[in-house]
């Protein structure tokens, strides 16, 4: 069984990674893929949507005669990331409780 990741959770993953440093598109995809299965064709629409919603900004840097587009979390993105973190903790606690993984008991 493959558990599907929601778009909101994928947004949180991207924002979480970019909260520590800026990445260009391909390297960001690789970083996400270290933890979850996601394709490049999935990542770029996510990045465009986050940028459209002012959660990310972009800038270009030259690299070997070409430009790489880097993604940077915005102040609004940091605020949204905090909300996603809080919602994830509540969701995770409920799922852990149902699956018998509640370590507080």
Q: Which helices and strands, and how do they pair?
A:
Blueprint (H helix, E strand, L loop, with lengths): L6 H12 L4 E2 H9 L6 H13 L3 E8 L2 E8 L1 H25 L6
InterPro entries: Metal_resp_DNA-bind_regulator, Tscrpt_reg_PadR_N, WH-like_DNA-bd_sf, WH_DNA-bd_sf
Organism: Lentilactobacillus parakefiri
Protein name: PadR family transcriptional regulator
What are its keywords?
single chain; 105 residues; alpha+beta; 3-stranded antiparallel beta sheet; 3 strands; 56% helix; WH-like_DNA-bd_sf; PadR family transcriptional regulator; Metal_resp_DNA-bind_regulator; Tscrpt_reg_PadR_N
Summarize, please.
The protein has 105 residues and is an alpha+beta fold. It is built from 4 helices and 3 strands, in the order αβααββα.
pLDDT average, as an integer?
A: 91
From the alpha carbons, calculate the radius of gyration and give it in angstroms. Answer: 16 Å
Please identify the top-level CATH class. Mainly Alpha
State the end-to-end CA separation. Answer: 28 Å
Total domain modules = 1
The CATH homologous superfamily is termed: Winged helix-like DNA-binding domain superfamily/Winged helix DNA-binding domain
Give me the strand/helix succession. Answer: HEHHEEH
Sequence of strands across the biggest β-sheet: 1-3-2
Shape: globular
Regarding quaternary structure, how should these chains be classified? single chain
Category from helices, strands and their pairing: alpha+beta
**SS field, number of helical segments:** 4
Uncertain segments: none
User: Looking at CATH, which topology would you report?
Assistant: Arc Repressor Mutant, subunit A
Gross CATH architecture = Orthogonal Bundle
Largest sheet: 3 strands, antiparallel
Q: State which percent range the strand residues make up.
A: 15-25%
Task: Report the count of strand segments.
Answer: 3
Organism: Lentilactobacillus parakefiri
Protein name: PadR family transcriptional regulator
Pfam family, one: PadR
Domain Transcription regulator PadR N-terminal: 14-81
């Amino acid at each position: 069984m493959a558990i599907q990741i929601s778009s909101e959770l994928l947004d949180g993953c991207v924002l979480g990674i970019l909260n520590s440093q800026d990445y260009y598109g391909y390297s960001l995809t690789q970083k996400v893929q270290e933890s979850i299965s996601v394709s490049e064709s999935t990542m770029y629409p996510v990045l465009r949507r986050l940028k459209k919603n002012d959660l990310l900004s972009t800038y270009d840097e030259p690299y070997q005669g070409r430009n790489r587009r880097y993604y940077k979390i915005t102040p609004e993105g940091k605020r949204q990331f905090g909300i996603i973190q809080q919602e994830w903790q509540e969701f995770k606690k409920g799922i852990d409780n149902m699956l018998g993984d509640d370590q507080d008991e």
